[in-house]
Amino acid sequence: MNRISFLILLMFFSKTTHAQIKNKAFDSLLNVMVTKAVPTVGCEEIKKMKTVVFLDTREKKEYEVSHLKDARWVGFDTFSLKNVASIPKDANIVVYCSIGVRSGKIGEKLMQAGYKNVHNFYGSIFEWVNQGNPVYDMSGKQTNKIHAYNWKWGVWCNKGEKVYN
């Protein structure tokens, strides 16, 4: 099955859409891949949050290219609850990755560990950038670069300068 046929099937079988995702094919993919075990939030909800702890669940090299402002890197393969022990169990936490799959899995671990207000960023950093929101490099400066994971997943990131290394 080629990619276009797969996307058409995803759109056909997808029952719900997340209103904030602008690209319907991307939304259909997310609807199938992102866990429903962790409540999701989108760009607009995140912008309205007053106090939030952002946890970046991508690999270190992805985080180093760019991340959300004040995000804390926790990784995916190397994730440990020890690295979040200083975060209060009732803190408002938003986990994110490239599209929301890895962050959903980390969100589940956080909820199982007793964190009460965990949200998975639906569309994650790709949708954040697609909607024109800023990302920051390791020096804290705004950047146009975005780690696109690999060329297959990078097609879902439509803005910014894609980095693959």
From TrEMBL:
Q: Which UniProt keywords apply?
A: Signal
Q: Give the matching InterPro entries.
A: GlpE_sulfurtransferase, Rhodanese-like_dom, Rhodanese-like_dom_sf
CDD domains xref list: RHOD
All residue ranges annotated as the Rhodanese domain in the record: 48-137
* Record keyword Signal present: yes
Q: Where is the signal peptide?
A: 1-19
- Report if keyword Signal is assigned: yes
SUPFAM superfamilies the UniProt entry points to: Rhodanese/Cell cycle control phosphatase
PANTHER family from the xrefs?
FAD-DEPENDENT OXIDOREDUCTASE, PYRIDINE NUCLEOTIDE-DISULPHIDE OXIDOREDUCTASE
Name under which the protein is recorded? Rhodanese-like protein
